[in-house]
Each structure stands twice: as C-alpha cells, then as structure tokens.
C-alpha cells in the first residue's frame, strides 16, 4: 500500500473510532433521550393522543415554530401536567429524564413537577393547563 493511501485509511479509521466514542456522550444534549412529538397549534391549543402515554408516562411535545418543548407527564394519580422545558435561570432548553429536568448550561435541576431541585435557577418551570376529552390531551398554550 502506498504511503498516501495508508495515511488516508488510517485517518478514516481514527475518525470513525472518535465518532463512536464521542457520539454516545452527546445523548444528554437537547431534550434528552425521549422522542419529541411535533404538534400543530390550533386556536392556541396543541393536542396529543392519550395513547402516546401507553408506553411512557413522559412525552415531549414541540408546538410548531417553538424553540422549546413541553414535557407532558402522566402522574401516578392519572392526572397530567405540562411544563415548558425552558430553564428559569437564563432560558436554556432543558434535558428531560424520568427523574426530572436538567440544564446543561449552569447545572440547575428541576423535579418532575417543575420545582427547582438545585440552582442557580430559583423559579419553578412554567406550566400549562391541560384538558382531557375524546381520547386527546389538550394543552392550552394561552395562559
Ligand atoms: S440557564 Fe439553566 S442554569 Fe443557567
């Protein structure tokens, strides 16, 4: 093998190896490992089929045109909550997990109900009212 081909193939192997080591560590960026459901806004509301909660009590919904997602959580008492995943410290998008929400900018964490677990954030997350009907959960965005 000539020197140039050897160097090229070696560099490619190093890039694939580095990508394999780095990419799994990026899973904490963005909304987290939960899929984000895109949703159309109609009359200031967004609807989510209740069947979405059959597999997981937490669904992330991003209204069309929004930068932030909304975390919709089915609680143990079978009621639902909807929280805007926008850090109340300096507006960074939050990462969702089963245990709550975290901010990768300065380290704030929030409980599943939106209260601050660790600062520097001091305010609870914004909540939206939700209603249930005809197999749909509706998030009222005008609140
Ligand atoms: S922006 Fe989230 S902790 Fe600062």
**Helix share, percent:** 10-25%
Spatial separation of the terminal alpha carbons: 68 Å
The assigned CATH architecture of the largest domain is 3-layer Sandwich
Structural class: alpha+beta
Q: What is the name of the CATH class of the largest domain?
A: Mainly Beta
Strand count, sense and closure of the main sheet?
5 strands, mixed
Provide a brief overview of the structure:
By secondary structure, this protein is an alpha+beta fold. The protein is built from 1 helix and 12 strands; from the N terminus they run αββββββββββββ. About 15% of the residues have low confidence.
List keywords for this structure.
5-stranded mixed sheet; globular; 14% helix; 4-stranded antiparallel sheet; binds FE2/S2 (inorganic) cluster; 1 helix; Rieske Iron-sulfur Protein; 143 residues; alpha+beta
What can you see in these coordinates?
The chain is an alpha+beta fold and 143 residues long. It has two domains: 27 residues; 110 residues, Rieske [2Fe-2S] iron-sulphur domain (Rieske Iron-sulfur Protein). The strands form three sheets. Strands 1-3-4-5-10 form a five-stranded mixed sheet, with no helix packed on it. Strand 8 and strand 9 form a beta hairpin. The radius of gyration is 20 Å and the shape is globular. About 15% of the residues have low confidence. FE2/S2 (inorganic) cluster binds next to loops. The site of FE2/S2 (inorganic) cluster has 11 residues, from loops.
């Amino acid at each position: 093998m000539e020197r140039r081909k050897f160097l090229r193939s070696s560099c490619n192997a190093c890039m694939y190896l580095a990508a394999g080591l780095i990419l799994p560590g990026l899973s904490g960026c963005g909304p987290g490992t939960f899929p984000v459901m895109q949703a159309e806004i109609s009359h200031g509301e967004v609807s989510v089929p209740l069947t979405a909660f059959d597999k997981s009590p937490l669904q992330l919904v991003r209204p069309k045109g929004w930068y932030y997602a909304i975390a919709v959580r089915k609680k143990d008492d079978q009621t639902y909550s909807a929280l805007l995943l926008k850090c109340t410290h300096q507006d960074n998008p939050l990462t969702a997990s089963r245990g709550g929400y975290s901010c990768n900018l300065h380290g704030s964490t929030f409980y599943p109900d939106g209260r601050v677990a660790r600062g520097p954030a001091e305010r609870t997350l914004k909540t939206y009212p939700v209603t249930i009907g005809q197999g749909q959960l509706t998030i009222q965005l005008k609140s």
